Amino acid sequence: xHNKSVAELSRELESGKISxxxxxxxxxxRLKKEDEQLNSFITITEEQALADAHAADEQRAAGKATLxxxxxxxxxxxxxxxGVSTTCGSKMLANFVPPxxxxxxxxxxxxxxxxxxxxxxxxxxxxSSTESSYFGAxxxxxxxxxxEKRVPGGSSGGSAAAVAARLVPAATATDTGGSIRQPAxxxxxxxxxxxxxxxxxxxxxxxxxxLDQGGTMARTAEDNALMLNVMAGFDPKDSTSIDRxxxxxxxxxxxxxxGLRIGLPKEYFTGNLSxxxxxxxxxxxREYEKLGATVKEVSLPHADLAIAAYYVIAPAEASANLSRFxxxxxxxxCEDPKDLLDMYTRTRAEGFGTEVKRxxxxxxxxxxxxxxxxxxxxxxxxxxxxxxxxxxxxKEVDVLxxxxxxxxxxxxxxxxxxxxxxxxxxxxxxxxxxxxIPAMSxxxxxxxxxxxxxQIIGDYFSEARLLNAAHQFQQVTDWHQREPx
Length: 485
Ligand SMILES: NC(=O)C[C@H](N)C(=O)O
Known about the structure:
alpha/beta, Amidase signature (AS) enzymes, three-stranded mixed β-sheet, binds asparagine
């Protein structure tokens, strides 16, 4: 059963071949065994999962089952879960049990899905390797057969590794600068970052509020569509959520791609992209041509400014968002504070890890009175130019395609001593967040036995088109079905 997709598992449950309790037991058994090696979960909620599975079976017996009823999945540990530990990968929240559900959590609960637990992540979603988690690094299931411990990408590395290793068929994730797409690429799974505002951020622990977006991770595009059907929609509790109709994302999956106009941003096919990676991505694009798409080169002239702009804006927003973690209300508090100031300073010094502290310092500096115009304001202007590049490109083409990452999964520890090399993991993904548009990563081949991701980028609210393009590609390729040993 562990190899089946959400769509297939749903059909198995519907046919009565297996109950949700049986299915949940199978997945939990596998998860507890295999995850000793991978550390893709921070919390496994066995008791709650079995109770939910029972409830799902009753629901089905009463003739009230829907597609997700009784299907197991997991949440990234950034989504608040009522009564269940939510750590965001940090010591700061190691003891935090939210008294409420995120809207995304609530939506899956209402759909009857069975959450097996919370997946590992970089601390407060800051990172590209899931090595900065207070709960230890996650290992990529790919590479293990060669005796190598490679990173799964990040920050949603736990979700990506768990889906790749068949510990769950699907998991939620979030993406601020690449955190869904980069781990999806490195683990050989399919991930979608929706348009900013498409999925509610209520109860999703904030990193950089103008960039953060919840999204989906599964092995097939179809399952991503099934997840987005549950997650997307207006939420009055999130002031940046957009009130706009949600289509059935599965309805257009099988539309033919004949006439689809694909643009290849020339700035995304240079620099540190290896020849072997480029060959895999170009091979995938040739498949699209066989499916009737046309391909032309386009330009995103401000592409090389994206990382610099992001690493001003994201830390600036993080420094403001993370000021709430001060030991006063919830989360970690230092032992025996002398006075209020001592409590604030020691709580924050002891509760946050190195990368989080680095970003709080950078962000605070960029926002300080004398430097605001030189850094933050300038970065916002650059952000507007980057957005305009995409708007211009979408006047000529329907989607853009590129590699998701410049290289496949790297060895653990390889980039931890130099933050800038880690930041460069996001060269092809970060501009998309600055513009607020949707993008996917789809398995598109292998280099040295490691998965390669194809990034498909679309105009605002074109999730259905991206899912359609990914699904049709997955009908003629089997990269997404390959299983790590
Ligand atoms: N949160 C993300 O999207 C990850 C990105 N690599 C960052 O460290 O900011």
